[in-house]
Amino acid sequence: MARLRYQQTARSGRARAGLLHTRRGAVRTPAFMPVGTQATVKTLMPEEVAQAGADMILANTYHLSLRPGAEEVAALGGLHRFMAWDGPILTDSGGFQVFSLAANRKLDESGVSFRSHLDGSAMSLGPERAVQAQELLGSDVMMVLDECPPPGADRAYIATALARDARWAARALAARSEGGGALMGIVQGGVYHDLRRRSAELLLELELDGYALGGLSVGEPKEIMMEVIERTVPLVSGAGPVYLMGVGDPADLVRAVGLGVDMFDCVLPTRTARTGALLTARGRMNIKNARYKDDPRPVEPDCQCPTCRRFSRAYLRHLYMAGELLAYRLNTLHNLHFVLGLMERLRQAIAQDRYEEFARGFLAELELGQQ
After folding, report:
1. Which residue among 23, 81, 260, 352 has the highest number of C-beta atoms inside a 10 angstrom radius?
2. Got the DSSP string for 156-220?
3. Binding-site sequence positions for substrate
4. Could you give the subunit structure recorded for this chain (predicted)?
């Protein structure tokens, strides 16, 4: 049995809907994976995440390897038991955090050496260790170690990095055990289309279980990002699911689904919730705004999330301004319901072959709210 199998059930233009079959069950696509960095989607119980509509979550290999440790999680029965999540889990390789958080990094063919952002202790991460750590966690879908080139990196640097990424991916594949999870490659190449194509070609030779688009949403203009997605997805969409890493803005989700992307993850819904920003059909609502002090309405009148069914904007503002922890929970519940509900509406629109109609209406309402 394949460790990861994508089954297309409907198509509308380039947008596609389907089922991603994992060893722990099927994931409806297009899918958004809430981020559980430290083995928790911040402020929520696992059942609340599932009830919001999530089939799969993402956990962070770097953070869990540092604390409590991948071996410790394995000894406690694996990540699913540790965090009481029964569904599929995708883990990143830890590479992005190494390059963005760790100090004094040194990179060579063997991998990367760095110092922990927690205590400064010396550590190293190579392709083999990245797979080993993810297998210890019990990941259903693992990611290969790669380098996400820094924003503004020149063409020669990116070309060198993506070639090394492909060699690392081959080593990761060789290191995967018989009982290990699926393994996805990561297409890099910056904003250079020929380098993206070369990265895809090198990774496709390995016949991995699926392919992600990395190195996007890191500061480049949105129109450039969408152009890269549009031209890169066809290169890998015939070889399994296509995963766009680190993108969660609602407008970006809708547009990327229209370009054929199947999977997404991002901290945006949960992180913005903790800053008092609520996602709505007309853009973000800043619940800290004084205009909501006496507003008896829910965040969105038609929203069926637990927050909107029971609480007013005035109450949510009061909680946030008072520093009450319940504010973070209620805001997060709403934002996750909004994003996961958006994915369900996209799946329905694709099944009815009306993606374009849905996307036009959704984006037009967003734009109207920003005027």
Report:
1. 260
2. HHHHHHHHHHHHHHHHHHHH--TT--EEEEEE--TT-HHHHHHHHHHHHTTT-S-EEE-S-SSSS
3. 92-96, 146, 188, 215
4. Homodimer. Within each dimer, one monomer is responsible for RNA recognition and catalysis, while the other monomer binds to the replacement base PreQ1.
